[in-house]
Amino acid sequence: MSDFLLQWESPQLDYYWCHHLIHEVYAKNLVKARLGDQERDWIASCDASGFSFHISQGEIQRLAPVARAFYTDRTRLENYFRDIEILSRHVDTLPWHPAPGEDPLDALDRIEPLFHEAIGLHLCSQPHLTQVVEQELTLALDAIGMQGDERHQAMDWLLRPRRLPLVLQERLDWYEQVLCVPPDHTDQRLIDHLDTWRYLTAGDSKQPTTEAELRARLTADRRCLDQTAEQARRLREIADGDLPPVPTALHSAGAALDWAERARGLAYYRFMTKQTWLKLWYLMEQHREVLGPEAAGLITQEARETSGEDHDRSAYVLLSTDGFVELFYNGTDTAVRGHHLTPLEPLGDRPLTGSTGYPGLVEGTVVVIDWSDSLETKRHLVGEETILVVPQTTPDFVPLLNQCTGLVADEGGLTGHASIIAREMRLPTLIGSRVGTRLLRDGDRIVLNASEGWVRRTPPHSMEAV
């Protein structure tokens, strides 16, 4: 297997991200300014299948003490959270659409630095960094001898949000303001919900949520109203600050309480930075559309200087070796990528490993929803014995997850969307599999042991053997 491990990917990220990674995050040390260091050995690539970013295993190990020092330092962490709030409040004041008569190049000049800052803040909480928080929390629970169901209950209490990030507030509003109203009011409430949330639930697509997508979600949630009601009950408890008392076993677990507080903070603010950069990205795309197709994906300086020359930037590879970044465009990109990223070995009888999003042991049939798939084309395959395998989760997945028995996500960490949603839904979930969508196929029968962090192909009816 390759020394480089997949960290995150998207079907939508384009040339602009190439420039951003080179000049704004790494060359300008936007991560290093807060974290104390940043990745030096990595490879990023983009082609028709989308964008992917890999970091070497050695780099992940090297950054572990850097991340631990950052997350342990309460002053630095609080300053980091404060910077996120300041930027987010500023971005919230920006309109969602270009003002009539506004010069798009002037607008891009104003928005672009904010976007770079938002991404720099977001990358300070990547899963390969925040995993040190999970490790410290695990060690703290080990130290007091907490195991089994008692440990799972303690983790649930420790990691439950103390305030709702927007992605969970939207879910609560959806239940209370749309699902629970009389049928003759549903249409108007759905439109009201769309007006409030269409952009903040857009995800990485750069496109706002549509009425058709919300109506599909409405149909799916009505099929699983009991599960949706239980999720809403738990979210309402959080919103009202009505949480159960501290479990007795945690009364003397100061270290566990401390690390859990950090994990909750990182989760909350990671959601905030993502919503911030998504809004800025969406705004920049609108301004580039005004400039015309020749400005698609260009940074502002390039858009100002373009002479109409056709630059083919449809595929590239970025390679960083000890901080020295090389850029390869069409023609050489495939060879460079192939040299560094070895082909995946078939899964065979070996387990696929990851981290626990929510514990549990289940058996089911795989349905893969990859970036190239449509939720609508796969919705009919999802049933009670489905284990859904996805690159990452978005709000649109939640109605499908209500119908599943388990979840496997390529991306994610303790502070990510998949983990938080899994805990609120009580859904056995494996996060950070990195390659689940590539090695598992629709119809595969698997055992998911989310408690121990592995998935294995298995003949039917084999739970007894696990």
Structure commentary:
- The protein is of the alpha+beta class.
- The chain folds into three domains: 4-130 and 265-340, no CATH class; 166-240, no CATH class; 352-465, Glucose Oxidase, domain 1 (3-Layer(bba) Sandwich).
- Helices cover 49% and strands 14% of the residues.
- It has 18 helices and 13 strands.
- It has helices at 15-26, 32-35, 57-72, 74-92, 104-122, 127-143, 148-159, 166-179, 183-197, 211-223, 225-240, 254-291, 300-305, 333-340, 375-378, 398-401, 417-425, 436-439; strands at 4-10, 42-47, 50-56, 316-321, 324-329, 352-353, 355-358, 361-368, 386-390, 406-409, 429-431, 445-449, 454-457.
- A hairpin with a 2-residue loop joins strand 4 (316-321) and strand 5 (324-329).
- Helix 3 (57-72) packs across helix 6.
- The longest helix is centred in the middle third of the chain and has 38 residues, at 254-291.
Properties at a glance:
466 residues; alpha+beta; 8-stranded mixed β-sheet; Glucose Oxidase, domain 1; globular; 18 helices; 3 domains; 13 strands; 5-stranded antiparallel β-sheet
